[in-house]
Amino acid sequence: MKTAFLFSGENSQYIGMARSLTETYPKYLTYFYDMSRILGYDLRLACYCGDEQYLSKVSVMTPAVLITSVIAYESARARGIAGTAVAGYGMGEYAAMVATGMISLETAMKLIIERAKAIDYCAKAKPGAMAVIRGKSAKEVENACNETDEYVIPAIYNSPDNIVVSGVDSGVDKIVHRFNSEGAHCTRTTLPCAYQTRLMQVAAERYLDAIRHTKFNPPSCRFFSQITGDELKDFDNMPEYLAKQLTSPILFTRELEIMAEQGYDTFVECGPSPILSKFTESTLPEALALNVEDMDSLKKTMSALGIPD
């Protein structure tokens, strides 16, 4: 068994994030207290009681997902779950960096605050749209985007038949209309701009200006990149890498395939909901996909790995 940890930057669970974990391990409450001082609002209240409307704000959702992911990871490690690699998805790469000791949780929180500011600025200056395409292959989506006369690209490769397109609003509409007419299932997201595209260049530049002097340590284990889909080995220019993350497609399917080729057969997702676990099951049917989001899922994962409670 060869295990990797996965970290998502997304959230589909809005109430009670990290609550059962911190009730069982109250030492992690200090994370909430420390991060709340940085943020200027009660992050624990946001995670425990925040509703969908409140947590849909980037400035609230990203800190909530980050701290929940880190607490889930620390709880998993405390119960004997170990891995030799990490892979982050979107903003999940910040939790992966914390998990591997590249940066502290405090530094990660300060980085995502600046990231949210840059994204908010870009959303006002260059709005765009995104849509999830289910039931079409990556090649079909790539061809459709190339054939569309407006800017739209495959921006996130979730699984072989789940691709997110991103671009100008009218371009995304054309892709959605085309694939819906062919029987695919397409859903526009509520995200405020065209993530993972060149339309985020303004945000990337502003973000880099804000974080360019941040220091990073080498990771304590293998770190797989969503930008290249392969293991990241050069950590000398992490501020530039994180800025580039905003304008580059997420190659999550490729990451999984390469890790599987290198012997990884067990994937433990740490975060508020099992989003990546489902993508892993679709991409690697033979792999063991597990998750830790609360005490119930932690115990189920321990049982699946043969770790006594």
Report on this structure.
There is one protein chain. The chain is globular. It has helices spanning 19-24, 29-39, 43-49, 52-55, 58-78, 92-99, 105-125, 138-147, 169-181, 201-211, 238-245, 252-261, 275-283, 295-304, and strands spanning 3-8, 85-89, 129-134, 152-159, 162-167, 185-188, 222-224, 266-270, 288-292. Helix 3 (43-49) crosses helix 5, helix 5 packs antiparallel against helix 7 (105-125) and helix 10 packs antiparallel against helix 11. The chain folds into two domains: 3-124 and 198-304, Malonyl-Coenzyme A Acyl Carrier Protein, domain 2; 129-188, Malonyl-CoA ACP transacylase, ACP-binding (Alpha-Beta Plaits), CATH 3.30.70. The protein has 14 helices and nine strands. 48% of the residues lie in helices and 16% in strands. The longest helix has 21 residues, at 58-78. By secondary structure, the protein is of the alpha/beta class.
What is the element layout, followed by pairings?
Elements: E1 3-8, H1 19-24, H2 29-39, H3 43-49, H4 52-55, H5 58-78, E2 85-89, H6 92-99, H7 105-125, E3 129-134, H8 138-147, E4 152-159, E5 162-167, H9 169-181, E6 185-188, H10 201-211, E7 222-224, H11 238-245, H12 252-261, E8 266-270, H13 275-283, E9 288-292, H14 295-304
Parallel strand pairs: 1-2, 1-8, 2-7, 8-9
Antiparallel strand pairs: 3-5, 3-6, 4-5
